[in-house]
Amino acid sequence: MTFLGDYVLDGGGIACLGLSRRDGERLADLRKPLAVARELARNDCRFLCYVDGNLPYRVREEDRGLLDLLLAEHPERFAIVPAKTAAEDYIFQRAGINEATLVTPVPASEETGYLDRYPWLRDPGRHMLVSERDGLIRCGSLEPAEFLDSTAFDLYDDLFPTLTKP
Predict the structure, then answer these.
(1) Domains of the chain (ranges, CATH numbers)
(2) Going by C-beta distance under 8 Å and a sequence separation of 6 or more, which residues neighbour residue 37?
């Protein structure tokens, strides 16, 4: 797949914002990466949102069909990391290869080791850290994205017109 975009999103990481490794029973929230994608689209930014293979089993049951739809109908914007592949490394590599800005909740720091493996993360504008607070997704210079009052389908409806642009 050739990607000619500006941003690569760590969709699984963004969906799991606020969950700890011990929160296996809590569900990832598909609204979070969709809210970030919507804000990027509102700013005429092209993106590709990757999700790891277990995300379909970690989102709410009512959102699984939507995730399947996004992956099937919009492969130029939503893709799944290949099976048996370390998702974070794969997503970081895709951002590097495409010279895109990486959008992720994972800090690019000496502690994570990503700066050693991906020195381009030091370049200005190549890493956009995502966080969540008070029902808002904060992502670089984008407007804080609200998601609590929306369903994943509402966010998809807002995003859909931009997905169908040539």
Answers:
(1) 7-158 (3.40.50.11980)
(2) 9, 47, 49, 77, 159
Q: What's the full length of the chain, in residues?
A: 166
Residue-wise pLDDT for 31-86, tens only, equals 999 999 998 988 888 999 999 998 988 898 889 999 999 999 999 899 999 989 99
In angstroms, rounded to a whole number, what is the distance separating the alpha carbons of residues 166 and 51? 23
SS (H, E, C) the chain: CCCCCCEEEEHHHHHCCCCCCCCCCCCECCHHHHHHHHHHHHCCCCEEEEECCCHHHCECHHHHHHHHHHHHHCCCCEEECCCCCCHHHHHHHHHHHCCCEEEECCCCCCCCCHHHHCHHHHCCCCEEEEEEECCEEEECCCCCEECCCCCHHHHHHHHHHHHCCC
Specify the pTM: 0.87
Q: Long-range contacts for 82-88 (Cβ within 8 Å, ≥24 apart)?
A: 83/53, 87/10, 87/12, 87/13, 87/50, 87/52, 87/53, 88/10, 88/13
